């Protein structure tokens, strides 16, 4: 098979079998990309995944692009990105079209009221996990709480908070190192 | 031109949401308030569907929002918009991978970005809390504090939380259970 078609189809499978956040893609990437294709090593997958977590964009997509790029340059990276997004596009459109027709039925409204409670719990649990990785000392705790409060009470673009936090962290770390030196 | 606006909005989200699918949440919440393309209740439904179906959540959210706003073409454009900036950035970064990951400056930046993302996600989760477990309308109408709490939903949420601690099942299964409980106990009525 053409290598580009192979990259697209392989990452379509990764997209189709990933449920939820980026971390849930790892088992299927290991099976499809490392074991079956031998395109990259297990260690490389982990490295790409770690870097993807702290980069803009969607973790699963970023990881796919890194791997595709490793296999066949930038074209490979682009096809991996399109491949991993493709199943979502089809599945979600079918579901969205279907739900839209039934959304006014009482039973559907009841179902979604129940589902919303579940979604809140899922988000809460994700936050607890993210919190452990992100809040590592008093500075990051303060930053997290302050940004939470600011964004609740002041309605400005979240991008400003992200950029501000990055600048603040660089300043804080640099000041810390200057003090030690 | 709604398609151009869709692409631009999701381009921004793809550029500035760092840390996985949920990181798009604060941006989508703001987009809802600013454009009125969808309500916060729609957003909660989108999250549920994104969690319950295959595909990375961030992609699903973009596809769902795009479809909701602009049909099939909207879905394709929003999805391409959200993956476009990362594609360019990742391809550039891949070239400088070694130097990039060891740079002290970059590590300092991410040291600040991670807790900032968590703070923003918490604030978005608060909005989900308001529409999922609380009942502002009934409270305003009656002024009774007890009416503020949607007791059925709160009991379900606590039960689900405890169940998730005990059994590590797939989120889609818990969502399906919550849907059935919602129908049986008529949660919206």
Describe the protein.
The complex is a heterodimer of chains A (181) and B (189). Chain A is mainly alpha-helical and 181 residues long. Helix content of chain A is 83%, strand content 1%. Chain A has three domains: 3-102, no CATH class; 103-134; 136-181. The mean pLDDT of chain A is 86. Chain B starts with a helix and ends in a 5-residue tail after the last helix. Classes of the chains: A mainly alpha (181), B mainly alpha (189). Strand 1 (19-20) of chain A pairs parallel with strand 1 (55-56) of chain B, so a sheet runs across the interface.
Give the total of beta strands of chain A.
Answer: 1
Q: Are there runs of chain B of 5+ residues with pLDDT below 50, and where?
A: none
Beta-strand fraction estimate of chain B: under 5%
Which sequence of SSEs, written as H and E, runs from N to C of chain B?
Answer: HHHEHHHHHHH
The rounded Rg of chain A comes to 21 Å
What is the total number of structural domains of chain A? 3
Please, how many helices of chain A?
Answer: 7
Distance between the termini of chain B: 39 Å
Q: Tell me the structural class of chain B.
A: mainly alpha
Q: How far do the termini of chain A sit from each other?
A: 58 Å
Order of helices and strands of chain A: HEHHHHHH
Morphology of chain B: globular
Supply Rg of chain B: 19 Å
Could you list some keywords that capture this structure?
heterodimer, A: about 180 residues, mainly alpha, 3 domains, 7 helices, about 85% helix, about 0% strand, B: about 190 residues
């Amino acid at each position: 098979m053409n290598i580009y078609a192979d990259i697209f189809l392989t990452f379509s499978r990764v997209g189709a079998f990933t449920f939820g956040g980026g971390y849930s893609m790892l088992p299927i990437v290991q099976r499809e990309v490392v074991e079956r294709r031998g395109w990259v090593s297990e260690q490389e997958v982990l490295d790409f995944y770690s870097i993807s977590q702290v980069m803009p964009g969607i973790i699963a997509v970023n990881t796919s692009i890194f791997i595709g790029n490793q296999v066949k340059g930038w074209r490979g990276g682009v096809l991996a990105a399109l491949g991993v997004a493709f199943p979502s596009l089809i599945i979600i459109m079918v579901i969205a079209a279907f739900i839209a027709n039934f959304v006014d039925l009482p039973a559907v409204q009841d179902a979604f009221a129940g589902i919303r409670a579940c979604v809140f719990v899922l988000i809460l649990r994700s936050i607890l996990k993210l919190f452990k990785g992100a809040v590592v000392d008093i500075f990051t705790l303060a930053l997290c709480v302050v940004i939470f409060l600011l964004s609740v009470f002041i309605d400005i673009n979240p991008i400003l908070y992200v950029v501000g936090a990055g600048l603040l962290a660089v300043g804080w770390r640099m000041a810390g190192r200057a003090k030690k030196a | 031109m709604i398609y151009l606006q869709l692409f631009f909005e999701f381009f921004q989200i793809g550029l500035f949401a760092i840390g996985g699918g949920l990181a798009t949440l604060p941006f989508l919440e703001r987009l809802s308030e600013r454009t009125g393309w969808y309500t916060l209740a729609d957003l909660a439904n989108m999250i549920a569907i994104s969690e319950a179906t295959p595909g990375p959540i961030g992609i699903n959210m973009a596809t769902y929002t795009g479809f909701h706003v602009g049909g099939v073409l909207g879905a394709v454009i929003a999805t391409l918009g959200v993956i476009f900036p990362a594609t360019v950035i990742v391809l550039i970064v891949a070239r400088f991978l070694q130097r990039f990951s060891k740079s002290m400056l970059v590590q300092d930046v991410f040291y600040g970005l991670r807790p900032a993302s968590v703070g923003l996600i918490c604030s978005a989760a608060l909005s989900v809390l308001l529409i999922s477990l609380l009942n502002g309308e009934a409270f305003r109408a009656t002024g009774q504090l007890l009416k503020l709490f949607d007791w059925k939903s709160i009991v379900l949420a606590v039960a689900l939380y405890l169940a998730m601690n005990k059994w590590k099942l797939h989120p889609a299964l818990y969502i399906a259970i919550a849907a059935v409980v919602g129908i049986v106990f008529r949660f919206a009525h």
